[in-house]
Amino acid sequence: MRGRRWLRLMALLFAFGLIAAACGDSDDDAETGGATDTTAGTEETTATTAAPEETTATTMDDTTETTGGAAPEGTSIGDLASIEEVQAVWETERQAVVDMLTAGIESGEYGLGEDGIARGPGGYEIDTSVCPADWSNTAGLTDTEVRLGYTTAQSGNLAAYGDIALGMQSYYNFINEEGGIGGRNIELIVKDDGYVASQTIEAVDELLQNENVFAITTLGSPNTFAVRDTLNAACMPQIFSQTGHPAWGDPMNYPWTTGFQMDYYTEAALWVQWIEENMADQAPVKVGGLVMDNDFGLSYESGFEQFAEGSDVIGEFVVQKHDPAAPTVTNEVTTLAGEDLDVFISMTAGNPCLLAIQDAGRSGLLDTVDAAFTPSVCKGIEAYMAPAETAADGWLIVGGGQKVSTDPQFADEPFIVWEGERLTGDGLDPNVDLITTGFAGFGWVTGQTLLIANELPDGLTRTNLLLAARSLEMSAPALLDGITFAVNGAEDPFFIEGSDISRFNATDQAWIQEGDVIDLNGAKGNCAWNLEISVCE
Amino acid sequence: MRGRRINPAVVWLAIGAGAVVVATAAASLVDPITLRSNSRIMVLALAVLGVVLATGQTGLVSLGHGAFVGTGAFATAVLIDDVGVPILAAIPLAAGVAAVFGGLVGLPALRLRGIQLALVTLGIAVVFPVVARQYPALTGGVTGRPVTTTLEPPGWMPPPFDESGSYRFGICVLVCLAGFWLAYNLVQSRVGRAMRAVRDDDTAAAAYGVNLTTTKVGAFAFSAGLAGVAGALQVMLFPFVSHDQFDVFLSLRIYAAAIVGGVASIVGAVLGVAALVIVPALNEGLDLLENETAVFGLALIVLTFVAPGGLVELFRRGWERWQRLREEPPGPDGGRPDHAGRDETPVLRPTVAARRLRGQR
Amino acid sequence: MELFLQRIFDGLFNGAIYSSLAVAIVITFRTTGILNFAQGELATFSAYIALLLLNPGSSSLTGSGLVSDLIPGTPWPVPLAILGAVVAGAAAGAFVERVVIRPLARAPDLSVVNVTIGLLIVINAVVVETWGLRGYLLESPFPTEADDYLGIGGARLRLETLGVWATLLVVLALLGLMLRRTRLGLAFRAATTNAESAELCGIPLGRTRFAGWVIAGALGALAATLVAHSVVLEPFMMIRLLIFSFAAATIGGLDSPGGAVAGGIVIGLAQSLVPGYVPGIGSEVSLVPAVAAMLLVLLIRPTGLFGTRRVSRV
Fold it and tell me: How many residue pairs bridge chain B and chain C with CB atoms within 8 Å of each other?
């Protein structure tokens, strides 16, 4: 008896010892995680890089505004002759923002005031007096480094997103070669969270406590949500979040958090816009949506509802939600097919993208509607369009407004060429979408913002970083002409609010742009996301 | 039991208090991140302990304990943020909610054979996140809800407990010890014997006067309550709950940990969770297989052959072998301690025919 | 009316999907008394073999060169590829039975359940490693163009649905024939009814069990390849279906193949009709009526609608 008791006690202590000594690997998740939700998470960061020629966008009438900051004149950067010229344009654009902000700071209107409140254009404010006692505006900066933290999925089902980091690093390599940010090199510290929100919490804690970072970027909607409160309470910039959720456009409540890519609300607004333009004579139009039951799908749904509300053309919007883990969406599509729709919009992601197209064809839905949209995250031809064969023909998409680097019509543009050279030089494949997204999208914008912030009075500080980020207006390298890349403080927190509309040609297996790009820059209001009802308020 | 002069409860209390202090002190030397990771592991051990009690001791297969963890977690979030209950008080309340849920799930157990109960619990595990996200006011719906109330140490706490990370770790250790102590006492008691009787042959047990209803439902409720505590503690450590944290894979992981550790053994719960941590770490270190889930699946299979009683059985065999080497030849009964069936791997009650089909008597 | 009919047809198609895996599960249970949690994964694996035969370049490990060299004539026509998958499924079933299940012949049931769960995890991981997470659509041997349907009462009954059901019913008929008319079938029935006596009569239990796993493996493979046109073929394909197939098998009775089919129909119809006609339950929670149906049957008649009742003797 005693022997066994003793054995047990030893085993218990041994086990606790093991646990205490466990090398911190929190992985009690051999998280295969995805069966239920993989498909949910593939919000491909359709990060777009803008090459607008002018701020006044094209087709769309009065929905665009010129935002604060001098708008560069001149041709699209895609038409320039060399990368040096492109860099020169950016330098001019950066200087314009620097000048605008500096003028404001010197006049006392902007900048970090005595009261601890940093002010920016468009009514933007950050109250630093509520920051933690040990907070510093220059934490994360050493003599030689600007330390940036980044959480992303490098393992698990969505590990492909890890490629974005590679592109970002490559762009930062370029910046560092050119002297860095005022002599400091950008140091990117990447943490893997496997796209699991609770792991993001851990990763962010590590960054906050151990890694001394200047700013943090998070990837994924649930992940960004999970740490948004913590980061804002810690007065840590959560910049250029890599997710399409509209909730990051909320500078009033979350001043430290920004988004970057075209968000789902913009996409929904563009759907509404397209319908109003192209189907006005069929009013009232009945629209049906197949919505994935997760934050991704629901934000599409609430976005569409909001924008459709004031529309004269759209009469009714009906919805069928589906379980992200379900093997088929046939029942939902059948129900929608019985609704006599004019327009069908798929608001889903992953494999259901394909299933929706297939079922829409089979159920006869495609025969009765005048237009069918598939969402931007379902753009992948090989995975989502090709297998559906003829049923995929004619589907519309809000393409995301990108200049795809593998598209022959952009292949000669100076930036695309230079991007290819830089990436190849770093041992990366420039044909991989996510890598170029990291390079031309997130890497580029972070680099430009840092450069701007460094030139402001007081130099590179966290508040200056955010002021710069909230005042950007530049020619983003891979955005289609006509799409503005601009924000304006608290008035317009969304960087990219425009896109192309394209139609799929099943014979050529390609997305063909239809009409001009639609730019809704500044047209949307801010988004205070209500978690309970999944709506921007 | 006769001749004992010191009340075992006091001994345990002393050990417990000592362990808490020692563990927390040691842990405070570790950085807060690791501390929290370790806290989380410990917390999982409670859920695994739940499976040990339900499956290992009472023979009720539970593939759905993740749902009870989730129930405890959501209940805690609602209690502390919406209702304003202090966190420490919320833990037992949340456990109660989970226990009630567990009791309800245990009701069908009265009528069902092992494999059917397994399917019921699997169904619950699969359905739980789906249902959870339909009630965003409670659960944060599809996005999940950040929890704003955090547990801070009261001002009078001496170091190392005055630091919130260490304080929470200490609370975890305390609660876990309490849970294990409760479980241990349960297993040693008459109720425990009744549970094992039900496990081994419930018809016979009923014939001998064991109340099947109270035993089965009670065991399930208690084990669900433990899992609920795990959920509550998790919320205390990680202030964010979301439906996708409590999917079927969580249930399978908890179950697998229980099996690997030794499904009928309380110590096995700890070993199983340790394995959940060490195996992936080893895998990364030795770079065996890319997919760490696969490693765990393999471990499950291999252990079933080598040591169905789990790691506990392996340890025991090793211990006995070592003892035999040190001692003189054993007495007539082989010197093997009488386990009284306590830690035996249970027989999942098969149908008579099925048993015969596999050549068992 | 046509919406109602369409929902019936949808339910029948989904039902076919669930039934086909459920039948495989039932065969294993009936002949060996084991609920095989890994049945779906074996089936998924077999479907990927079909993919390999249809599209040799799809695997990251083998690449088109290796498969084309080893197996003549790739890419194969669809029926042959399915046959190949069925053979692979049978082989996989045989392998698992010999290597993993047989040594556990005298082990408690719980051990075997645990092993099948372990297998589920391992096979899933292997599939993920080899083929990645991408989804594929397998070609179906049935006509699957958008206009391949019978118009009935305004609703569309797809030819694919008819094809899958026809296959299922043929399989069921063959199974029934086998059980009633062949020695193997006799062995199955004897082994299930009274294993000891069966053994005394000289019926080789080991071989019977082996045959059961082989047949179940083949059936699962057939199921997976047929449905992988409407359900995307990806590593978690069968895991998504597993709960539905278990529910179907449970409802029908775990030892009745015909019951599995009936159960599949029940689940499929519950999924398409309940969200349509019961207020408050939307499609996004269609899992709930399915599981609820399973729970209901388990509570009222635990051995299923068509299963044989068991008496437990002390």
Answer: 173
Question: Residue C81 is part of a domain; what is its CATH number?
Answer: 1.10.3470
How many CB pairs lie under 8 A apart between chains A and C? Answer: 98
CA torsion, ordered C227, C228, C230, C233, to nearest 10 deg: 140
ipTM metric:
0.88
Strands A371-374, A343-347: pairing is parallel
For residue B9, what are the contacts with CB-CB under 8 A and spacing of at least 6?
none
Mutation target vs A (from C245, C283, C285, C287; most A CBs, 10 A cutoff): C283
The answer to whether residue C139 sits within a structural domain is yes
Check if B136 contacts A (Cβ < 8 Å).
Answer: yes
Instruction: Say if C309 is an interface residue toward chain B (CB within 8 Å).
Output: no
Residue A531 has its nearest CB partner, among B129, B141, B337, at B141
Chains that touch B (3 or more CB pairs under 8 A): A, C
Number of domains in chain A: 2
Window A:477-536, CB contacts with B under 8 Å: 531-534
Q: Which DSSP category does A389 fall into?
A: G
Answer yes or no: do A315 and A251 share one domain: no
d(CA A10, CA A2): 12
For the domain that residue A185 is a member of, what is the CATH number?
3.40.50.2300
Judging contacts by C-beta atoms under 8 Å, the chain A residues touching residue C17 are 327-328
Do A344 and A470 fall into the same domain? no
Domain ranges, residue C131:
2-300
Name A186's Cβ contacts closer than 8 Å, sequence gap at least 6.
A145, A146, A148, A172, A175, A176, A180, A446, A447, A450
Q: Which of C30, C114, C210 to mutate to test the interface with B (most CBs of B within 10 A)?
A: C114
Co-location of A340 and A467 in the same domain: no
pTM over cut 0.80: yes
A273 and A296 together in one domain: yes
Looking at the complex, report in whole angstroms how far the Cα of residue C95 sits from the nearest Cα belonging to chain B: 15
| Minimal Cβ distance to C194: which of B294, B347, B353 | B353
Q: Please tell me the distance from the alpha carbon of residue A156 to that of residue B67, in angstroms, as a whole number.
A: 22
Number of independent structural domains in chain C: 1
Number of other CB atoms surrounding residue A183 within 10 Å: 9
Tens-digit pLDDT string for chain B (361 aa): 455 566 666 666 666 666 666 666 666 666 666 677 777 778 889 999 999 999 989 889 999 999 999 999 999 999 999 998 898 999 999 999 999 999 998 888 787 877 888 889 999 999 999 999 889 889 988 888 888 888 888 888 777 677 777 788 888 888 988 998 899 899 999 899 999 998 888 788 888 888 888 889 999 999 999 999 999 999 998 888 999 889 888 898 899 889 888 888 888 888 888 877 777 666 666 655 555 667 778 888 888 888 888 888 888 888 888 888 887 565 555 545 544 444 455 555 455 555 545 544 4
**Same domain as A201, residue A131:** yes
In-domain check, residue C312: no
Query: Do A417 and A308 reside in the same domain of the chain?
Result: no
- Residue A188, C-beta contacts closer than 8 angstroms, at least 6 positions apart: A148, A150, A165, A168, A169, A172
**Domain ranges, residue A385:** 264-398
